[in-house]
């Protein structure tokens, strides 16, 4: 029996399609985050990027997102080691750290909606930055990490 690619390849060795399929579609990376400059503690908010569909957890213009949101961070082989703000459930972080994908991950289940169905996404829990109060501290949550 052949093992799936994520069990046999390092992130750096994956094809573009394999890399993209590792994303579980949780939407947590699209949340606004606040950094306490005194303590270096990172806080997640329930406010999502304006491009995120808050129900499906899909980017409304994934291909062109950097044009609309210049500070959008695109995970890549070049930055995966240095990005420390990914939530503990992030598939890229799990694989980077030598762990396996969770049983609810779409690559494991074969269902592209399994992350949402398992309650592991931001679906129904966030609002768009377009609808949020400017004071993001009011939206700090602890569930993404």
Shape: globular
Class derived from helix and strand content: alpha+beta
Q: How would a crystallographer describe the biggest sheet? A: 4 strands, mixed
> Mean of residue pLDDT?
94
Amount of helix? 10-25%
β-sheet strand percentage: 5-15%
Number of domains: 1
Gist?
The chain is of the alpha+beta class and 145 residues long. Helix content is 20%, strand content 12%. It has one domain.
Annotation keywords:
4 strands; alpha+beta; 145 residues; 6 helices; four-stranded mixed β-sheet; 12% strand; globular
Explain what you see:
This protein is an alpha+beta fold. It has one domain. The protein has six helices and four strands. It has helices at 5-8, 16-22, 65-68, 91-96, 106-109, 114-117; strands at 31-36, 41-48, 127-128, 140-141. Strands 1, 2, 3 and 4 form a four-stranded mixed β-sheet that branches. The longest helix is centred in the first third of the chain and has 7 residues, at 16-22. The N and C termini lie far apart (35 Å). This is UPF0260 protein TH25_00075. InterPro entries: Puta_zinc/iron-chelating_dom (IPR005358), UCP006173 (IPR008228). Belongs to the UPF0260 family.
SSE blueprint and pairings:
Layout: H1 5-8, H2 16-22, E1 31-36, E2 41-48, H3 65-68, H4 91-96, H5 106-109, H6 114-117, E3 127-128, E4 140-141
Parallel strand pairs: 2-3
Antiparallel strand pairs: 1-2, 2-4
């Amino acid at each position: 029996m052949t093992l799936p690619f994520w069990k046999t390849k390092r992130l750096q060795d994956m094809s573009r399609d394999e890399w993209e399929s590792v994303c579980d579609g949780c939407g947590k990376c699209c949340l606004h985050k606040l950094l306490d400059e005194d303590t270096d503690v990172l806080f997640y908010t329930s406010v999502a990027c304006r491009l995120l569909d808050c129900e499906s957890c899909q980017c409304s213009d994934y291909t062109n997102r950097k044009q609309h949101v210049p500070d959008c961070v695109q995970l890549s082989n070049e930055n995966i080691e240095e990005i420390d703000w990914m939530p503990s459930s992030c598939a890229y972080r799990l694989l980077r750290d030598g762990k396996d994908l969770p049983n609810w991950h779409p690559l494991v289940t074969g269902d592209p909606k399994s992350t949402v169905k398992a309650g592991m996404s931001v679906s129904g829990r966030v609002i768009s930055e377009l609808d949020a109060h400017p004071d993001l501290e009011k939206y700090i949550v602890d569930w993404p990490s």
